[in-house]
Design brief:
single chain; 335 residues; alpha/beta; 10 helices; 10 strands; 19% strand; binds 5'-O-[(R)-(carboxyoxy)(hydroxy)phosphoryl]adenosine; binds zinc ion; iron
Length: 335
C-alpha cells in the first residue's frame, strides 16, 4: 500500500509518499519561516495563501521523486486538524479532491497522531504499548499508547504548550521568529544554575503541565538584570539556559511519573520541541536509569512534515478509516 500525505496545518507545506514495504519514497518540505519572520509569528491568512501556491507543485515533485504516477497511489492522507482553519482547508480541499479525481480513498489525519507515530518511521521503531510525550508549538501531551487509535491522555498543559513557552520567552529576549530553536542555541552558551526558575506543577501529584509562569519568571529576571545594568550577552545566555533547564526538568519529572504510573518502560518523544538536544539528553538518561528506552523521530520529522501524515494515514486506511465525500477540517480536535 502506498499513501500520499499532505500537511498544511500551520506554516510548513509538507508532502510525502509512504509505502508500507519501501518506506518513505519522497519527502518534500517548504517552510514559510521567511514569509512570517517580519511579523514575529505566523500570519494565518498569509499561511493559507502560501499553502495554495506550494501544495500542488510539491505533490508533483514528490511523485517525480518517487518515480511514480497517480496510478501507483492507493490513498491520500491529509491533516484535518488541529491547526489554523484556513491553512488546514487548503490541504483538506486539495487532498480530498485529488483522491476523488484519482478514484482512491481519502483519509483525514489528526496532526498530533502524525507526530505521535513519527518515531515509527525510524529503523529502531518503538513497539506498543508506550508512553508518548508530545511537545509542539500548540500542544503538550502525555499519552498512553496501546496501538493505532488507542490513546489515553494522561496529562496535558493547562495553559501554554512547551513550544509556545519557548517561542514567547524567545520573543521576550528579542530573538527572531521562530524563537524556540534560537533560544535553545543561546542556552548552549549559558552557565548552569546562575539563575534557577520554578518547575511548575511538579510539587503536587498529577501529570498536567503549566508553562505560562515560566515566561513571567523570565520576564522578571530580565527586568531585574536590565535595572542592575547586567543584561549582557552572557547574562542572556544564562537566562536562556535557566529557562530551558526548567522546561526540560519539568517534562522529565512528568515523564518519569507517567512511566511509573503505567508500569511501561518505553518512552516516545515527538513534536517540534523533541528536536531539543538538552531534552533528548536528559530523557535518554532518564530511560537508561529506568532500564527503559527512549525513541525519537529524526530531526526533520520532529517538526511538521508530510512523512508523518502519510505514515499515519496509511495506518488509518489499513484500519478501515476513510473520509466521506466532503471537505472537513477541525481547527480544534481532541486526540
Ligand atoms: O511540531 P511543530 O513543528 O509545530 C506544531 O505542531 O506546533 O513544533 C513547533 C514548535 C515551535 O514552538 C518551535 O519553537 C519548537 O517546536 N521547537 C523547538 C526546537 N525546535 C523546534 N523548541 C525548543 N528547542 C528546539 N530545538
Ligand atoms: Zn506539529
Amino acid at each position: 500500500m502506498r499513501v500520499l500525505g499532505i500537511e498544511t496545518s500551520c506554516d510548513e507545506t509538507g508532502i510525502a509518499i509512504y509505502d508500507d514495504k519501501l518506506g518513505i519514497m519522497a519527502h518534500q518540505l517548504y517552510s514559510q519561516v521567511a514569509l512570517h519572520a517580519d511579523y514575529g509569528g505566523v500570519v494565518p491568512e498569509l499561511a493559507s495563501r502560501d499553502h495554495i501556491r506550494k501544495t500542488i507543485p510539491l505533490i508533483e515533485a514528490a511523485l517525480a521523486d518517487a518515480g511514480c504516477t497517480k496510478d501507483d497511489i492507493d490513498g491520500v492522507a491529509f491533516t484535518a486538524g488541529p491547526g489554523l482553519m484556513g491553512a488546514l482547508l487548503v490541504g483538506a480541499t486539495i487532498g480530498r479532491s485529488l483522491a476523488f479525481a484519482w478514484g482512491k480513498p481519502a483519509v483525514a489525519v489528526h496532526h498530533m497522531e502524525g507526530h505521535l507515530l513519527a518515531p515509527m518511521l525510524e529503523e529502531r521503531a518503538p513497539e506498543f504499548p508506550f508512553v508518548a510525550l508530545l511537545v509542539s508549538g500548540g500542544h503538550t501531551l502525555l499519552v498512553r499508547v496501546d496501538g493505532i487509535g488507542r490513546y489515553e491522555i494522561l496529562g496535558e498543559s493547562v495553559d501554554d504548550a512547551a513550544g509556545e513557552a519557548f517561542d514567547k520567552t524567545a520573543k521576550l529576549m528579542d530573538l527572531d521568529y521562530p524563537g524556540g530553536p534560537r533560544l535553545a542555541k543561546l542556552a548552549e552558551q549559558g552557565t548552569p544554575k546562575r539563575f534557577v526558575f520554578p518547575r511548575p506543577m511538579t510539587a503536587k501529584p498529577g501529570l498536567d503541565f503549566s508553562f505560562s509562569g515560566l515566561k513571567t519568571a523570565t520576564a522578571t529576571t530580565i527586568a531585574a538584570e536590565i535595572a542592575a545594568g547586567n543584561y549582557d550577552q552572557q547574562t542572556r545566555a544564562d537566562i536562556a539556559h535557566a529557562f530551558q533547564q526548567a522546561v526540560v526538568d519539568t517534562l522529565a519529572i512528568k515523564c518519569k511519573r507517567a512511566l511509573l504510573q503505567t508500569g511501561l518502560n518505553r518512552l516516545v518523544v515527538a513534536g517540534g520541541v523533541s528536536a531539543n538536544v538538552s531534552l533528548r539528553e536528559q530523557l535518554s538518561e532518564l530511560m537508561a536509569s529506568l532500564n527503559g528506552e527512549a525513541f525519537y523521530p529524526r530531526n526533520e520529522y520532529c517538526t511538521d512534515n508530510g512523512a508523518m501524515i502519510a505514515f499515519a494515514g496509511l495506518q488509518r486506511l489499513k484500519a478501515g478509516d476513510t473520509e466521506p465525500l466532503a471537505v472537513r477540517a477541525r481547527p480544534r480536535w481532541p486526540l
